[in-house]
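Comment thread on ticket #2218

A.B. wrote:
> Attaching the input chain for the structure job we discussed in standup.
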Amino acid sequence: MKSNYIAGEWVAGSSVRENINPSDVSDVVGHYAQADAKQAQLAVEAAVDAFQAWSVSGVQARSDALEAVASEVLARRAELGELLAREEGKTLPEAQAEVARAGQIFRFFAGEALRQGGEKAPSVRPGIEVEITREPVGVVGLITPWNFPVAIPAWKIAPALAHGNCVVFKPAELVPGSAWALAEIISRAGFPAGVFNLVMGPGSEVGQALINHPSVDALSFTGSTGTGARVIAGAAPRRAKLQLEMGGKNPLVVLDDADLAVAVECAVQGSYYSTGQRCTASSRLIVQKGILPRFVAALRERVEALVVDDARKPGTQIGPVVDQSQLDVDLEYIAIGQQEGARLLCGGQRVQRATEGFFLQPALFVDASPEMRIAREEIFGPVACVIAADDYEHALTLANDTPFGLTAGLCTTSLRHASHFKRHAKAGMVMVNVPTAGVDYHVPFGGRKASSYGPREQGRHANEFFTTVKTAYTAP
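C.D. wrote:
> Ran it. Output below, let me know if you need it in another format.
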């Protein structure tokens, strides 16, 4: 059994959770300790005790520890990718790429630990100097989702530690294996006891304990919009610093002048890969009427040819849905789409493979309208719908007609339309002739409206959340 990690020690939990392979439900990945609210409190106390020394530690020590994590993660890319694919259902190439990205994130922030900067400015009062510096915010609670079980923890943990914070990390219940493997690497990298803590367990108990605890100075959360609202309601009244990444219902606009092959590839990659289980997935395909028949025909051919099978099997393009609960949600939305009048062009049915798993044939709807639930609500599965647009202006209006604002895509060969879309799409990230899903680790990640709340994640902009600004005046 794999244990929690609190104050530098591996600690048994109050219960045990069985981790199941979604490609083969008879395969038990492992057994993982489940913390309770009391253990979450102990982890916070350990982080509080460690913060005083760690917050003023030398930047070289921070950098060296983060580099040690990066080197081991990258060296074990194949092994950790196998574990990720086995417990989450992401195809093996995607899983290994995610692990590599996590290693690159730790390496980037090993460098950022050495690039702690500041400013010096003259005061308006003669003879007084002004210094502007950044200091760690304190104890940070990190609550992460199941769909990127290595990369998202990495892009929260690495900047938190690089900037001198202490961490209490609560991963999603469905993916304890990847979280534990990453924590085990971190435990041997040279961080003092209490600087990093792992508490695996239910969000209703462990997550809520972090939200409520007065010594948790900041919370970084990635998950559903509904849970994000509860994080705000619980932590904002006590003035905790918040960073939330939540849902998306992202548009991919395809104009008449688009390169058809590029547009279809963007749609397939953005809508269906990773089984559509990405907040950046392009589940709304807004297509101008002139190219619509050709685009739909070409997309249908590609979608029907996608290989759905065991995530670790060579040649698999689409792995299983993560669990039975998510599969039920996907199937319910497919039924809703048909009831609302959209036409299910292909896919949408559960499929059988050599092993019992949560396999779903990718679904493509056409003749959808923007008010339908399948066009407005995040499904988080391999389901996309096509909405017709009269012209560019109509397409832009449709793209922005959503409560979400994470990412928006455009396929076009027009520089004028590309430039206008980048400025007027109401999203935090805009992609032109590339899939909406797929972002770099060294630049800001985040959205607008119901998709995000608080400072951006990743890259140098991560310091806006993980540090606080201090202005100091000195007179001779």
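A.B. wrote:
> Thanks. Noting for the ticket: The longest helix spans residues 92-112.
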